[in-house]
Amino acid sequence: MSQASSPAGAPALLHPLPSYLQADKLGPWGNYLQQVDRVIPHLGSLARWAETLKRPKRILIVDVPIHMDDGTVAHFEGYRVQHNVSRGPGKGGVRFHQDVTLSEVMALSAWMSIKNAAVNVPYGGAKGGIRVDPKKLSRGELERMTRRYTSEIGIIIGPNKDIPAPDVNTNEQIMAWMMDTYSMNTGSTSTGVVTGKPVDLGGSLGRREATGRGVFTVGAEAAKHIDLDIATARVAVQGFGNVGGVAGKLFAEAGARIVAVQDHGGTIYREAGLDVPSLLRHVAATGSVAGFAQAEVIADDKFWDVDCEILIPAALEQQITRDNAGRIKARMIIEGANGPTTPEADDILQERNVLVLPDVIANAGGVTVSYFEWVQDFSSFFWDEAEINARLVRIMKEAFAGVWQVSQDHKVSLRTATFIVACKRILHTRELRGLYP
Ligand code: NAD
């Protein structure tokens, strides 16, 4: 795993990359590596440390066996990856999904390193997941799986080491089980080991809405730069869970029309704008936007052709690809999801003058309020929601303004600009800390 630097500063490998880093060039990890390559020419002398961004610091793969309700024993594969901890403890969500792979978790952990540095919270990047369709588990099975997984990764997580949080298909209840399991194993209540907990268990007000609020805040700031009026904009949202649901609600409250929503159950459309509060109630009751009466159903693939000014991918990665990027009508894409746009699609969108607000800044609101939660847990002193939202909005606006300026100065996309800001911060701390031993 060692490397040396050539006199010109370009890294020269002394040993080939481990096999798990070579695999899946077209997957999320491959996309992340391409994003890093685009930023290296802008890093100046810090480029000599850039190889560190291409190798996760620590990867843990765990077997998660549980008793099923029918008496059998099932085994699930779980992961926790700490990509970089130069700036502070690892931080990043836990995903329960049938398509979770090591490559995906590696990419998500790396994007967390970039995101946390972009908004300048004192964390490195980490991510975890279990390859499982949680919708097929009973509540008891889900709890047993969560607790066993937490025990298995317990050797590398902790309030000062690595702090998990919710992601796709994980929520406050799962965070409460993780917190309790870790606390039982260590012998004292340790609320700061996870964020996104219920408010009654040391969670923070405003955390549930924070990612969607950040998506809205950054979107509204960017709209000013391209003379886009939010109050008259049409918005299409993919994924109507924690991120997409809240972002959709805030855009609708600002006057925008939410014309199309897609989730795992199907795609719905209403030219006059969907009634978002009713749709949120429908999703809470049924689990999907499918079957919502006050809308027409359109084919899933037609989602990408919908007439709109703003598109918010807020589901999974690799949704906007070279196959559909040319069809998108939006003037602005706000990435609520992590990694929804492939590098080829990024290039097509840039050529077509579609402004892409990248995940690594656009969805950083969640981790920002997670940071507030962690700080509040350490001091056992809790802030009111108005203070939390005001601090969140201030951090998001300042971070976005900085990234916008870098994109203008370097004449690069907002994604590359965010990577420039973040990678410089990460590699500067890397250099200050030096190599051990
Ligand atoms: P969630 O589980 O609350 O919602 C996920 C949504 O995606 C659901 O509406 C689901 O139906 C939809 N979906 C799943 N598969 C789909 C498919 N194939 N096609 C269309 N829609 C599909 O998850 P979330 O927390 O809202 O996370 C969504 C995205 O935002 C993920 O990429 C996640 O990594 C990212 N993110 C979440 C947070 C957070 O705080 N929750 C923070 C930053 C980034």
Structural description of this entry:
With about 425 residues, this protein is of the alpha/beta class. It folds into two domains: about 20-190, 3-Layer(aba) Sandwich (Rossmann fold); about 210-355, NAD(P)-binding Rossmann-like Domain (Rossmann fold). The protein is about 40% helix and about 20% strand. The strands form three sheets. Strands 11-10-9-8-12-13-14 form a seven-stranded mixed β-sheet, sandwiched between helices. It has a five-stranded mixed β-sheet with strand order 3-4-6-5-7. Strand 8 (about 235-240), helix 7 and strand 9 form a beta-alpha-beta unit. The radius of gyration is 21 Å and the shape is globular. The chain binds nicotinamide-adenine-dinucleotide.
